[in-house]
Amino acid sequence: MSKALTQVLTGSTDTDSDAAMQPYPGEVPAEGISLVNLTKKYGGIPVVDDVNLAIKPGEFMTFLGPSGSGKTTTLSMIAGFTDVTSGDLKIHGNPVKDVPANKRGIGMVFQNYALFPHMSVHANVEFPLRVRKIAKSERNSMIRDALAMVHMEEYADRFPAELSGGQQQRVALARALVYRPSVLLMDEPLGALDKKLRDWLQSEIKRVHREVGATFVYVTHDQEEALSMSDRIAVFNNGKIEQVGTGVELYEKPETLFVGTFLGESTVFYGTHAGTTSTGTVIDVAGTHLHTTSELKETKLALLLRPEKLFLSATDSATTSAVNEVTVSVKSATYLGAAWRYVVELPDGTSALVRTENNAGIPEVGQPALLRWNVESGVLLRDER
Ligand code: ADP
Ligand code: MG
Q: What's the pLDDT at 229?
């Protein structure tokens, strides 16, 4: 483990007059974290490319994106492990580009637990306090509070090897928070855990976030995790942030095809601009005209539709024709418990995904069906393929 990493994990400092030790809770700083034209290049090639982002104090911000999109490198620049190539970085209004990692007042939790194996749980959580020369009388109550916060009081005397992965991560969280940093950075902290444990720890981390009031920056490649935990999500692609917003904003109003298809399920129809009407845009998709209230001045277009916005019915059930109506063939039907998921195929071979809670009247697999949706349901995007 590098010296800088150990220092951040343990909150170790060289002096007692550590300006980065921020008071909390109750005293939320006026400014959060600002990334300004932040760039990191390796061998001249940008892996974080001119990123701008303002994280609010006390916010739960998630960096979401595929592997290699620059999430860890960005987090690592905030932490101070990775040097900034160009641009600026501020924490609580203070430029920190030249501030060493251990002076930035941040806590950090990683995917691999990084507890000290030869130390008990108590000693692991105590370590940052000891290095900070906090009086023993105070230490014990701080350790108790931190362990209680993650429901691990009972395990104070155990060693890391005697704990499950989830328990080790809770101890790592307690150790990162015990000295009360105002910023907590987490890089895929639940990545090594199974689904059920992950779900439970997600809600635990959310609860801890509410209790401590610190700014959390959380990295994940899992869109469900991002949606369930975050105040806002920054979607990374190729070293750039494509969009920042709440889960609802990103799902309902994606600004790029990448964001729309990375978050949640979708069907995309590719076509060309075929004119405008009083209700919006007409798109030509393999000879079929589709209508949308969405507007975009581009020739090559993509119409993105969410599976719950598409409706399927028998071909002979239609009494009136809809504006957007395509005859399709039902390829598969999957029972999901609370809903059904259908894959249907259009005449040109493209497939579409339909989600419905009530499957009454939907033709069986292999049969033709009518696929319909409302003109305001689709999101029109630039075809960036
Ligand atoms: P993510 O966390 O989103 O998976 P990373 O930030 O780890 O992505 O990596 C972004 C890109 O930067 C990747 O292509 C990766 O190979 C590259 N990269 C990361 N660290 C280094 C390094 N120390 N030297 C060279 N390239 C690196
Ligand atoms: Mg990473």
A: 96
Query: What residue owns the CA closest to ligand 1's atom 7?
Result: 72
Quick one: tokens of 206? 């959310």
Note the ligand closest to the C-alpha atom of 234.
1
Question: Token pair for residue 182?
Answer: 């105002």
Q: Do residues 80 and 178 both lie within one domain?
A: yes
**What is the rounded distance in angstroms from the CA atom of residue 170 to the CA atom of residue 68?**
27
Examine the domain organization and report whether 118 and 221 are in the same domain: yes
User: pTM (2 decimals)?
Assistant: 0.89
Which amino acid is it at 95?
Answer: P
Task: Tell me 156's DSSP state.
Answer: T
Q: Which helix (H) or strand (E) holds 288?
A: strand 288-292
* Ligand 1 center to 71 CA (angstroms): 8
* CA 239 to ligand 1: nearest atom: 10
pLDDT at 41: 98
The answer on 211 and 107 residing in a single domain is yes
Tell whether 188 and 284 lie within a shared domain.
no
Query: Which residue range(s) make up the domain with 102?
Result: 3-252
> Cα Rg for the chain, rounded, in angstroms?
25
Which tens digit of pLDDT belongs to each residue from 28-64?
567 899 999 999 999 999 999 999 999 999 999 999 9
